[in-house]
Amino acid sequence: MKFLRLLLVFIPISLIGEFVHFSPTLMFILSALAIIPLAGLMGEATEEISFYSGPRIGGFLNATFGNATELIISFFALKAGLFEVVKASISGSVIGNILLVLGASMLAGGMKYKTQAFNKQALEVNSSMLLFAVIGLIIPAVFTHTVSPELLNKQYEGLSIIVAVIMFSIYLMSLFFSFYTHKDLYSVDHREESKPKWSLKTAVLVLVAATVFIGLESEFLVSAVEPMTKEAGLSEFFVGIILIPIIGNAAEHSTAVLMALKNEMDVAIEIAIGSSLQIILFVTPVLIFLSLLFKPMSIIFNEFELVALLLSVFIANRVSNDGESNWLEGFQLLAVYLIIAVSFFVL
Amino acid sequence: MKFLRLLLVFIPISLIGEFVHFSPTLMFILSALAIIPLAGLMGEATEEISFYSGPRIGGFLNATFGNATELIISFFALKAGLFEVVKASISGSVIGNILLVLGASMLAGGMKYKTQAFNKQALEVNSSMLLFAVIGLIIPAVFTHTVSPELLNKQYEGLSIIVAVIMFSIYLMSLFFSFYTHKDLYSVDHREESKPKWSLKTAVLVLVAATVFIGLESEFLVSAVEPMTKEAGLSEFFVGIILIPIIGNAAEHSTAVLMALKNEMDVAIEIAIGSSLQIILFVTPVLIFLSLLFKPMSIIFNEFELVALLLSVFIANRVSNDGESNWLEGFQLLAVYLIIAVSFFVL
Amino acid sequence: MKFLRLLLVFIPISLIGEFVHFSPTLMFILSALAIIPLAGLMGEATEEISFYSGPRIGGFLNATFGNATELIISFFALKAGLFEVVKASISGSVIGNILLVLGASMLAGGMKYKTQAFNKQALEVNSSMLLFAVIGLIIPAVFTHTVSPELLNKQYEGLSIIVAVIMFSIYLMSLFFSFYTHKDLYSVDHREESKPKWSLKTAVLVLVAATVFIGLESEFLVSAVEPMTKEAGLSEFFVGIILIPIIGNAAEHSTAVLMALKNEMDVAIEIAIGSSLQIILFVTPVLIFLSLLFKPMSIIFNEFELVALLLSVFIANRVSNDGESNWLEGFQLLAVYLIIAVSFFVL
After folding, report:
1. Residues C158-181, mean pLDDT to the nearest whole number
2. pTM value?
3. E-only strand ranges, C84-224
């Protein structure tokens, strides 16, 4: 993880690029490379703070800041009116977490250990929740796809807000569940056994600085999307569903793979499934609410996104139901991800 | 359950309403309130009779009369040519049983007990059957939605009857399975341990009277549907998929919640899944057969109904596979149900 | 199995039929009847060879020749440009293996034994793989069905080849998995305990002769398809999805049922799921590659095929997750198959 910090050098480079007007594709790449270590630092700072705040608030901070990078990038995309990019990146994050993160973890871990067992009991609550959450997202979409669209346009907005409120209330209830009524279900995090490396002051400073710079770089990234898609011949949808999720989740991805290599497959799967869950129950409704500041965004995803989401969730449920993983399972998840990516790239 | 009997007062009120021509919305509400305790009485009477008839015939009676209320309401809707209402109420019964009944049971039970374990072995036969039955229902629908509809209209009728015959034969085989070849799989019903409260004569009289009055009130209810939808601005589909199933299943709903509160989650889940199964394998084919008396109804459900059915069945399978439930799981099932209901109401 | 050899008499009869120009329907039936025992002989010869080659090469031969009959029939259909028949027979083979073979095995076995337990551990790797493989097939199809088709036609070809390469690489990896890294997972085949009946020379001769005659009869069969569909009023799709898979898999079908009757349900399920897996990961990509010799075939299946495939795979996963089977489960699988077959026949 340390070596990722070297990428921080892309912060000044991208700043220079902004002033001397580099090409959009170059600016997209530079700001993407700058965001990756910043997201990592934000995660580290949050964890350090949780040493001082105690496990309850720490757990809450981890849960809330875990997808802060995606949230910030999406906020700027929302502001720029790139609704398709925002929704594609939501779907892409879930798909990427399940297929890419889990696939890479299982492949890497499986090349070191023949089979890796994990406690499926603890995963079942989350993978069930993920299934229910995605179904909650599909229902209004199928409903609006079935009904003639002209009749509906005006009701989209109200329906989206109601669904977002319901999703967000499930999120709040799940925090209540995991921090109060059923906190014993969630075993103590392995990483918390160690001592804090930073002082509280340092940790807070790093968190603030990382957030500010992620905001800045996200603005560069998002404003490069439209001209870049024209320059490089990519679709905005491809950028949203494949590239942005990889940038936003790179730090988490490497943590999951490292955990798999330490034979802590429980933690790797927990990262992938927990993160997917937060994107649907926390990031998505928050973005719907924030969109009301600019122009209301509907919660209705397109057919392809819904199918890919549902099928990914079936895979997550199947995988977590198995209780053990091997390299072939990882290879197959990556193969399915590759098929998705290629399908879009070919377009 | 006893307090529901107070609602019997709505029988005379609805009779008066019919003669003095109350508004359709009021008549719908009055007859709905009258049906709820009648359905409860019918269930009680069937159970009482089974004390005298022995477990085998008793089980058969329970299985057959369990959804008699839905069957009677649907019969009158069929006679009135309200095919969309009939099919919506079939789908709505299954969705409501899985999401509303199971959700309410798990939430209520989970607020009293931290986790409620249940024997998943016994549930697996039924939840598998439910999956297979819904798939059997989806296949001809997808087939007809794929093929150009003009070519098909004339073959709908024959196909529907054949599918209904196959479904009904699965129902008969499942009775043979549970009462002959594998009767030991089904543990003795907890409620049968007690003694009969009524004489056989009373029980038969109550059963006959309840059936007659349900028939009468169903006729009031159904003839109020069309004018009410215009008066209250509701869609017939909303009435069919949300309101009618709640009315028809209210008695069963309260039994399931009571069982969950007594920590008998097995029985609560069995009610929800068993009832769903009977609706697809028994009520649906019987309605197709009965429709031949008036105008043949096709067995082809619309896209939304099929998606909602299949997703509900996935949830039922996931839930029964877990082996235990908690309040958060219940909350989520209710949230998914709420999203479905809101989607229709907004329209 | 021996009695199937009597059907070899249809080889000379079909040859005579070809010269004296029998009607297409008769030629279809004659060549179908000739293929059934030839496919059985091919399977027996492959098994005999594996006695001499050792388990590793033997396993590979079994895996590769297991679906040789389907591959040969499809090759001639491909050459004749009957793409819809080829793709329908791919889907039909998977659906038939899961619903018809598994259903018949469970029904037959379940009539002899009350419940038949099987080791679900060993099945889970394959049934997970089947789920992932079918999802890999669905993704590009949903993608192309969502996007406007005019834009895509030119990119179909490239996308199909890439997806076929990915599928085939999963196949190769799975061979590596089962013959090298995790060979202990796959218990020794029960049938290998016996001694070879044939000399190696005989076995090789039988294999070559069977392959040659299957090729010949497949050519008769395929060239009868188009005129027969007109003569008998069947759709080509019905021939592809129902009839051809039954012909190509008849030998395997009877082996699975025999195994179920010997209470070796593990082997019966392994045949059905393993064969489905090979069709998707080996037969399908090979046919895509072979089609480049004539006219490129796309890997995009129609909506009905995809839904039927996915639902069949859910059933396979559910069944293998249970750990035991009974006659009612078999009856239901056959009922779902019957609904599919009737849906097409009615057309």
Report:
1. 90
2. 0.90
3. 116-117
C-alpha to C-alpha distance for C33 and B219, rounded to whole angstroms: 58
Number of separate domains in chain B: 1
Enumerate the residues of chain A whose CB falls inside 8 A of the CB of residue B321.
Answer: 321
User: How confident is residue B302, by pLDDT bands cut at 50, 70 and 90?
Assistant: confident
Res. C295 pLDDT band, cuts 50 70 90:
confident
CA pair distance C23, A335, nearest whole angstrom: 47
Residues B122, B332: contact at Cβ < 8 Å?
Answer: no
Residue that the structure tokens 């209710």 belong to = B334
Which CATH number fits the domain that encloses residue C282? 1.20.1420.30
User: Is the model's pLDDT at B185 over the cut of 80?
Assistant: no
DSSP string of A50-108, one letter each residue: HHHH-HHHHHHHHHHHTTHHHHHHHHHHHHTT-HHHHHHHHHHHHHIIIIIIHHHHHHH
Distance of alpha carbon B70 from alpha carbon B68, whole angstroms: 6
pLDDT of the residue at A102: 92
Give the separation between CA C264 and CA C109, rounded to whole angstroms.
Answer: 9
Phi/psi at B66 (5° precision): -55, -35
C-alpha to C-alpha distances, C315 to A236, C94, C95, C284, C337, nearest whole angstrom = 37, 12, 10, 21, 12
**Could you tell me the two tokens for A289?**
């609410």
Mean pLDDT of C332-342: 93
CA distance A31 to A15: 9
- pLDDT of the residue at B323: 82
Tokens of C146: 């969502």
Q: The domain containing residue A57 runs over which residues? A: 2-188+195-345
Measure A50 CA to nearest chain C CA, in Å.
Answer: 38
pLDDT tens, position by position, B8-51 = 999 999 999 999 999 999 999 999 999 999 988 888 888 888 88
Q: Is the distance from CB of A284 to CB of A164 less than 8 angstroms?
A: yes
Cα A278 versus chain centre, distance: 8
- Minimal CA–CA distance to A133: which of A310, A320, A337? A310
Output the CA torsion sign for C44, C49, C55, C60: negative
Residue A251 is classified by DSSP as H
Q: How far apart are CA C154 and CA C151, in angstroms?
A: 7
Percent of chain A topping pLDDT 70: 93
**Quick one: pLDDT band at residue B5, thresholds 50, 70, 90?**
confident
Chain A neighbors of C132, CB-CB under 8 A: 315, 332-333, 335-336
Rounded-to-integer distance, Cα C96 and Cα A265, Å? 37
Q: H or E segment at B98?
A: none
Question: Structure tokens of B82?
Answer: 């309200």
Letter for the amino acid at C44?
Answer: E
Rounded-to-integer distance, Cα C256 and Cα C273, Å: 11
Is the Cβ of A321 closer than 8 Å to some Cβ of chain C?
yes
Inter-chain CB proximity B343 and A143 less than 8 Å: yes
> CA of A139 to nearest chain B CA: how many angstroms apart?
6
CB A143 within 8 A of CB B304: yes
- Indicate yes or no: CB of C332 within 8 angstroms of CB of B170: yes
CA pseudo-torsion sign A169, A172, A177, A180:
negative
Other Cβ atoms less than 10 A from the Cβ of B90: the count is: 26
**What angle in degrees, to the nearest 10, is found between the helix axes of C244-261 and C265-278?**
160
Integer Cα distance of A42 and A45 in angstroms: 5
Separation of alpha carbons B129 and A276, rounded Å = 31
Distances (CA, A) of B226 to B22, B88, B233, C10: 15, 14, 11, 64
DSSP state of A186: S
pLDDT > 90: what percent of chain C?
43
Q: Is A128 on the interface with C (CB under 8 A)?
A: no
Nearest to C277, CA basis, from C166, C88, C128, C161? C128
Q: Which residue has the higher pLDDT, A154 or B4?
A: B4
